[in-house]
């Protein structure tokens, strides 16, 4: 599902809201999650999951085209862990 698909579904489920308002709401939620992660905070959406930031150490990598060694600097990467309710829903459908 893309962001525009999400906006369309939310707008269809809430006909009393204008499409532009739903777009603003979705953009604001994503922006706040991004800002919180930038600050190093953890974002938890009960029943859905939690976003956090993890550190990756510097390492030696390889250029796949040439095979030359490349220094990969340390960096921060986003991490998502699903919530129990979401995992249960996904696994229930598989049964």
Automatic annotation (TrEMBL):
BP-aspect Gene Ontology terms: DNA recombination; regulation of DNA-templated transcription; regulation of translation
GO-annotated molecular function: DNA binding; structural constituent of chromatin
Name used for this protein in its record: Integration host factor subunit beta
Quaternary structure note: Heterodimer of an alpha and a beta chain.
InterPro entries named in the record: Hist_DNA-bd, Histone-like_DNA-bd_CS, IHF-like_DNA-bd_dom_sf, IHF_beta
Region spans: Disordered: 57-95
Pfam families: Bac_DNA_binding
PROSITE patterns linked: HISTONE_LIKE
Keywords: DNA recombination, DNA-binding, Transcription, Transcription regulation, Translation regulation
UniProt-listed HAMAP family: IHF_beta
Claim: Methyltransferase is one of the keywords in the record: no
Record-linked CDD domains: IHF_B (cd13836)
Role of this protein: This protein is one of the two subunits of integration host factor, a specific DNA-binding protein that functions in genetic recombination as well as in transcriptional and translational control.
GO CC terms, sorted: chromosome; cytosol
Family: Belongs to the bacterial histone-like protein family.
């Amino acid at each position: 599902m893309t962001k525009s698909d999400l906006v369309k579904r939310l707008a269809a489920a809430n006909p009393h809201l204008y499409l532009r308002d739903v777009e603003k709401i979705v953009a604001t939620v994503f922006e706040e999650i991004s800002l919180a992660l930038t600050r190093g905070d953890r974002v938890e959406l009960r029943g859905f999951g939690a976003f956090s930031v993890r550190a990756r150490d510097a390492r030696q990598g390889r250029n796949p085209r040439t095979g030359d060694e490349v220094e990969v600097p340390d960096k921060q990467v986003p991490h998502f862990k699903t919530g129990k309710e979401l995992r249960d829903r996904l696994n229930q459908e598989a049964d």
